[in-house]
Write a structure and sequence with these properties.
The chain is α/β, with parallel strands linked by helices. 61% of the residues lie in helices and 10% in strands. The protein folds into 2 domains: 314 residues, ABC transporter type 1, transmembrane domain (ABC transporter transmembrane region fold, Up-down Bundle); 227 residues, Rossmann fold.
Amino acid sequence: MGFHRGGWFSYIRYDDQIEKPGINKELMSRVWEFARPYWFQVASLLITILVISGISLISPLLYRDLIDNAIPNQDFGRLNWLALGMIAIPLLNGLIGVWQRRLNSSIGEGVIYDLRRNLYSHLQRMSLRFFTGTRTGELMSRLNNDVIGAQRAISNTLVTIISNVVTLVATLIIMITLEWRLTLLGLAILPLFFFPARRVGKILRDLRRRSLEHNAEMNASMNETLNVSGALLVKLFGREDQELNRFGNNAKEVRDIGIRSAVVGHWFFMLLSVVSAVGSAVIFWIGGHLVLRGEFTIGTIVAFGTYLSQMYGPLMALTNAQVQFAESMVSFERVFEVLDVPVEIKETEDPITSPIIDGLVKFDRVSFGYYAAEGEKIGLDEIARLSWRGNTEAFLKRGEDKPSGGLTDDDRPGLLRFALNDVSFAINPGELAALVGPSGAGKTTVTYLLPRLYDPSSGSILIDGHNIKGYSLKTLANTIGMVTQETYLFYDTIRANLLYAKPEASDSEIISASKAANIDEFIRGLPDGYDTVVGERGYRLSGGERQRIAIARVVLRDPKILILDEATSSLDSLSEKLIQNALEEIMRDRTSLVIAHRLSTILAADKILVMDKGKLVQQGTHQELLTQDGLYQTLYETQYKI
């Protein structure tokens, strides 16, 4: 037990030995909430189960009548009707079974569709902090493997349980009417079915959870190493063998757990088969004595034996279904774990939806800190488990009502690290503000707080006089444009990547935005023009081309406030000049906050914000700051001055 390193849950202790809640009323109630919209299909499914179970109970009575009446009395007409009945019963059951299967699939697929949409929607509302602490492969595992496991619980296990319960009850009623003493004798072995099932169910449930966790690790490993960036890194450092070993270790765990699950399941099934055989043997032995004494007809003992197998069959299925159900519920638990992770960036009940008009930006004593401590790395499983224990909600609430003036190390347990501390400044409408400072000074954090990718730990950020927490997230997204240093393009056409900013944009708007970003001429020179596929993350294009497409995408959005990380230092001179010209064009008449890498941007800025170790140490124009003996003068002499 110890502290986890980094992330928003890192100050909370977590003990892996704490047992998570199992199958209980609350879990089943949540599952039912997803099934409730399909109540009509559920009711129809129950009716088909009752009908099929009732029809199946007729067959043993036909056997008894055949042996006791039709054959001894040489009744050919009765024999013919009984034969037709034996054909009609499975045919009718099969036809109803097709309809039952359709209903079952509609319910199962519908519930899983809703569950998957809810999970994806919830993940979409997570803050950037959540994604920086979670591996993409783990998220993919929850959306795929876990949801498919939950589907098995809905589509197969629940129907099996219901149909077998109905069959078991109906069979017991008929058996009691035939011979109550033998029925009680057959029921005497029931404890031998259920006691092993409870033990085996717990074992297989634990194995199932471990298997899903290792599958998530495999997905994470594949996602990290089989994309362009990961594959490039692996090849450059010659780490193919090490990555194979890492992947193989998780695959080995999945294999070993699968083998153990199969062996445990087979031992369990074998035990049930032996118990069933012993029960049947005892019943036939005693029933045979009753036939020999004339207390039973042969047809009755045959019918009773058939009903006995119909009773033990559902009993075995129910005990096995209990095990399968426990395994399947693990998938629901893991999905609900993620759904229970609180949303950090929330809208108010009545948010401002009108667009930002002026673009006046103000930071008022803003601090942003996070906690890190020694311990193991944290992943989605740990985040979800901490959420289940109710600690994340407390974490998210702490510090929200702190007075302005910044936080101190005593405000929360753990090691507090500040990215920003007590930062205040204002950018007037239409102004260009340049952020400068050494690496790690907090420049990127400032740009991430403005569009609410994160929320500050204390203080407030205002746009046009309103706290940004009062705006709807859609309004902020529509009126704040951001070009990050790391450009991301989808594996799609250039046109589709541009339309991501404004789906309803016309061709003329697309071309106009591309011209503003100095990329239209290049695109038209491609064989497929705007319909050229850019490849994974846009890697078929150069860095400068990707950056200019990203700029065109923001221009198409036409935001009132612009946030830029110029990211031109690693580009060739031509690309740098083209991008710089494009930036100057789109910053005109917009409130702009730019992480400045070039002297020309600094000289053009209306205001320069000098950051150092999370604090705003200087602000003013270029000429004003040069007259001061401070960090800016040092940076200018060492980094910016030509």
